[in-house]
Amino acid sequence: MTTAVVFQIQSFLIYSLMVFGITKRKNRKIHVPTMSVVLIWDVILILQIELGRDAVAKASKALVNPMILNVHVTFAVLSVIFYVLLVVTGRKLLKGDRTIRPRHRLFGWTAFALRTLTLITSFFAVIPK
Fold first, then answer.
1. Which UniProt keywords apply (predicted)?
2. Looking at residue 59, what is its pLDDT?
3. Which residues contact 2 (CB under 8 A, 6 or more apart)?
């Protein structure tokens, strides 16, 4: 089994767990730990891809990369940025700041859309050697 397949399997599992976590968003005891695992595992997957494929060096060659790879990298980076926003707003929500809920919800659905696009584009972005 190639590393590309292992990465794709992990990506699909992370995405599936994310969908499960979203469906449990009204149950804080399930939602918070599930989404924490999702965010941590997704960042670990990015680190694995960097270590295994030297992804940052490839991504830095944006002018010569296929457009789909640049789009994929953009979605992945934006996903992580929104993960940070989700952690910040989620912590405030857990502390009782109900005014942050609409922003947290917006960040969450945006992160989910970006993660969906990251998963889809990942099938096309792998460059054969």
1. Membrane, Transmembrane, Transmembrane helix
2. 64
3. none
Supply the DSSP string of 29-62, one letter for each residue. HHHHHHHHHHHHHHHHHHHHHHHHH-HHHHHT-T
Sign, Cα dihedral of 107, 112, 115, 117: negative
How many of the other CB atoms lie within 10 Å of CB of 114?
20
| Amino acid in position 65 | N
Q: Read off the pTM.
A: 0.89
C-alpha dihedral sign at 97, 101, 13, 77: negative
- Model confidence pLDDT, tens digit, residues 63-78: 778 888 889 989 999 9
Per-residue pLDDT band at 56 (split at 50, 70, 90): low
Contacts of residue 19, defined as CB under 8 A and 6 or more positions apart, other chains included, come to: none
pLDDT of residue 87: 98
Q: Please determine, for residue 128, whether its predicted confidence score (pLDDT) is greater than 70.
A: no
- Say which residues have a Cβ less than 8 Å from residue 43's Cβ, sequence separation at least 6: 80, 83
